[in-house]
Amino acid sequence: MQGLSDTIAAIATPPGKGAIGVLRLSGPEALEIGARVWEGKDPRRLPGGRFTYGKLKDPETGEVIDEGLLLVFRAPRSYTGEDALEFQLHGSPAVMRRGLEVLLKAGARLAEPGEFTLRAYLKGKLDLAQAESVLALVEAESETARRQALRGLSRELSERIQRIEAPLLDLLAHIQATLDYPEEGVEPHRAEEAIAAALREIEALLQTAQAGRIAREGARLVILGPPNAGKSSLLNALLGYERAIVAPVPGTTRDYLEAPLELEGLPIQAVDTAGVREAPDPIEAAGVARALALAREADLVLWVADRSAKKPAPPPGLPEGRVLFVASKADLPPAWEDPVYLPVSVRTGAGLDTLKAAIKERLLSGASEGEAWLTSERQAEALAEARDRLKAAHGAPDDLMAMEVEAALEALARITGTEVVEEAIGRIFRNFCVGK
Ligand SMILES: Nc1nc2c(ncn2[C@@H]2O[C@H](COP(=O)(O)OP(=O)(O)O)[C@@H](O)[C@H]2O)c(=O)[nH]1
Ligand SMILES: [Mg+2]
Questions:
Q1: Is residue 158 in contact with ligand 1, taking CB distance under 6 Å?
Q2: Model pTM above 0.85
Q3: Angle between the 156-180 and 398-416 helix axes, to the nearest 10 degrees?
Q4: Angle at 216 between CA 210 and CA 219, to 5 degrees
């Protein structure tokens, strides 16, 4: 990564044509460079938070590239914390390309990927968890992904981490103090309680990693069941349009069929499969084998069984804890009852909402939508390390416990990227009253 002393420039809007295209410029020379390329009010004389109409020009030839708006931000009140300009021009590839060229010619350097956000982090405008949320928000394709990214951006995740850190810092200070002044005596009870409480919080947060991954990347939902159970009808009902062929003859769907959908805000790739049976025809048999393989890899399987016919047994080898049992054709007189199964009728729509809610609940595996989730694998890894260290600390002798708690705190600090450990420990010790 190159130096912070450079002024960086980039096209901020996606490639292609749009009504507006944005060029970004940030760094110590931003206002100077802006003055060289802008025909209109001099940005060096404008206060932050202002915009002005004018023309972007080539500083060497004076050729006008485009006309538009210039937004002025002054340090530290900008996204990066530096002086920054945004050029809102017409969003064509030619304007953006030439516009960027002009900014580079006038003294800026091309920004590296993520460099604006990196600068925001280095200037203390964002912590690392927030920076990751910026990325997650830019990439959000579902409602859930968007909401969670926004929670992360508004520091809800960082605050959750801090709530785990604070009592551990207290505990560490306490252990250190009793190591230095053994006559004070350690209160093992207090230590165990603090560690157990932190472990509970960490486990709860780790539980959200799977939900976070699904919100970002989507889940694979495989619809499995005997021929004629109503699988394709169910797919269509979940989609809200007729994607799969529905027919009263068994063996209609011989290969599998995928369709994306957003279910209660969650991005889902739904897969309709060939009916599971001993198939006489080799093509259908291959379809059945493929269906079973897909089910084993799925985030969630819907096992669909026709409630108006003889009850089938699900095939062996379905992923444990990742199957929802659906009793289809619930509008017809039942041939069997089973409380494990959710009754659903595609004909009347009965049970569909309950099924959708159950799918969502199962996929989120206990993560509540009212709280912040982990937004990256990196965070989950750091948190898992903190958990392992705390487990090792639990019940250990004082000196070892101190080491493990400190290591756990370091792992937690990696999530937000704040140097809490050294600094906060120093602060606590300065104020620590041992004689108390
Ligand atoms: N009465 C009733 N019939 C249904 C329902 N769902 C599907 N069917 C019928 O069952 C037959 C098989 O449906 P289909 O979706 O093709 O089953 P698949 O082979 O499992 O994909 C078709 O004639 C559907 O109209 C339902 O909820 N109620
Ligand atoms: Mg079918």
A1: no
A2: no
A3: 160
A4: 65
Atom nearest to 251 CA in ligand 1: 19
Residue nearest to atom 6 of ligand 1 (CA): 230
What confidence tens digit (pLDDT) does each residue in 185-213 have? 557 778 899 999 999 999 999 999 999 99
Burial class from Cβ neighbours inside 10 Å (0-12, 13-18, 19+) for residue 130 reads buried
Query: Which residue puts its alpha carbon closest to atom 17 of ligand 1?
Result: 230
Please give the Cα distance from 172 to 158 (Å, whole number).
Answer: 21
Closest CA to 304 of 277, 344, 264: 344
Q: Whose alpha carbon is nearest atom 28 of ligand 1?
A: 329
**pLDDT tens sequence across 60-102:** 999 999 999 999 999 999 999 999 999 999 999 999 999 999 9
Paired tokens of 13: 């809007």
**322 Cα: distance to centroid of ligand 1 (angstroms):** 24
Ligand with the closest atom to the CA of 333: 1
The answer to whether 21 touches 7, Cβ cutoff 8 Å, is no
Interatomic CA distance for residues 214 and 364, integer angstroms: 8
Tokens for 212, please give them.
């976070």
The whole-number average pLDDT for the span 13-37 is: 96
Instruction: Walk me through the domains of the chain, giving residue ranges and CATH numbers.
Output: 8-124 (3.30.1360.120), 143-207+374-431 (1.20.120.430), 217-364 (3.40.50.300)
Q: How many Å apart are CA 257 and CA 252, to the nearest integer?
A: 12
Ligand 1 atom having least distance to the Cα of 346: 27
Pair of tokens at residue 109: 């350097």
Whole-Å CA distances, 285 to 275, 276, 298: 10, 9, 20
Whether 277 shows a pLDDT value over 90: the answer reads no
Mind listing the pLDDT tens digit for each residue in 211-258? 999 999 999 999 999 999 999 999 999 998 888 878 777 777 677 889
* Helix spans in 207-331 (H): 208-217, 231-239, 282-297
Check if 277 has its Cβ closer than 6 Å to any atom of ligand 1. Answer: no
Cα→Cα distances 80→33, 89, 143, 337, Å: 17, 21, 27, 61
